[in-house]
Amino acid sequence: MTPVIALAQQQRDTLVVTGTFEPMSLEEIDRAIRVLPARSQALTLNSLTDLLKLDPSLDLQERAPNGVQTDLSIRGSSFGQTLVLLNGMRLNDPQTGHSNMDIPVPLEDVERIEVMRGSGSTLYGSDAIGGVINIITAPPSVTELRLRTALGNDGINQERLSFGILGKKLSEEVSLSRDFSTGFEPDRDYRNLQLISTTRLATDIGNGSLNLAYMDHPFGADQFYGDYPSWEDTKTWFAGVEQNLGEKTKVSFSFRRHSDLFVLFRYQPQIYTNHHADESFNAAVRRREELSTSTTIYYGVEGLHESIVSTNLGDHSRSRAAAYGAVDFRALKRFSLTLSAREEIYRNFSAAFTPTIAGGYWINAQWKMRASVSRAFRVPSYTELYYSDPGNIGNPDLRPESAWSFETGADWIPSAKLRGDLTLFERRERNGIDYYRTSPTDIWQALNIQNLNFKGWEAALHWTPTRIHSLDFRYTQLTGSQDTVPIGFTKYTFNYPAKSGVFNWQIHPNANFLLRTRVGVLERRNQSPYALWDVYAGLPRH
Fold this sequence. Notes:
- The chain is mainly beta.
- It has 4 helices and 32 strands.
- A hairpin with a 5-residue loop joins strand 10 (about 145-150) and strand 11.
């Protein structure tokens, strides 16, 4: 027993907050979680998408560089089935999943990204069918001013500023980012402005934080939505506050507003122009109680209200309320089991029940086995329900999606320098939402698809042979099937990566040089594989 305890104490230096009801070490969690450090690797990253590309289970489909209208999916899910959080608060857009990655946070303010692969609706509600990414900010480690600028081809012009003040009880960080380009071809220009202020305050009742963020993102959208020279401008406003009430209770409230101005013919806006503006309000109360040294219960309530005012979709609103509870068992530093469930009421008093069972067992000091079963759901976006244009039509009778996810895996940690893991997973979807047509000349129409099934496996090996070298090998393989709509006539469902691998090597030989190279190989279903290689080098100055 002693080696297992010693190993657990040695490895518990990476705390995560995603997929768990309270901060917990990575080795204690019985779900497939990965932590992607951002602040410590800032010199080898140009955008958040660079960081997310280090995980082959994440599929990022970018229509232009540096995250211009990027669709993110996990384990073959749709982009609408991936939930995006900022410090645990929702960022997903009720208008369309295409805007989920409109993240109003400069790279300089991000401390890390936590990725949970697999269902997360028990904790977070709708949208978390494929998984969750949680963008985590952190207070500055010192009082400092950081500046960064860059010039490149295609008129690339970047300026970034971050100013942090660290006090005993109060900390403040303000970050600003401007990213401009004339585009790699006509009508593919973009401008990206991001601004965030993060205030943290320690009080007698507990720690609190306030996040205020803004993003303005106009871009040329030529060929994005068909053979049209389109243009689009999206804006995001976000405000979120969290407060601990003692050691056991946390309350949070967030507000998000998103606007989308779309012009089908950029230089003839009078032909076809849409303007959408949606708002979301989310409030939550979470609490924990320790029944014994080995048993803890968690419970909470949440409320969410969403509304939209749109020239194309009309004016709509909807509300949801949820309650959840969980019991967590830990025994002998070997065994863990979490039983949790959520009941969410939405849309004319319909309801979704989303339970999760997750457990783990340390066989010895090097091997841990884990498994989980969970259910998730997603309500349709306003675009899927109501949108209409010459090539697409929504469906107001769409039913919410639901899915059961099954996962089992093993973690191998023979030493502090070497770590590996293997995960087998399956997702069985019902009422999956996609667009369908019977011939290439027909209009795409939104509909529910029954019995979508996805199976796959993930493998990873992380090796730090010396203090200055770090090597990471990761591979994901996936297959999907369905038994209703012909495969060739769905728009998004079967455009998933069947095979994806990433090799990442980082070297830091001395304090004045840093090098990272990544090789990614991807093969989409029924398409030829291709590879991408990038290299970053930096000269830190302290």
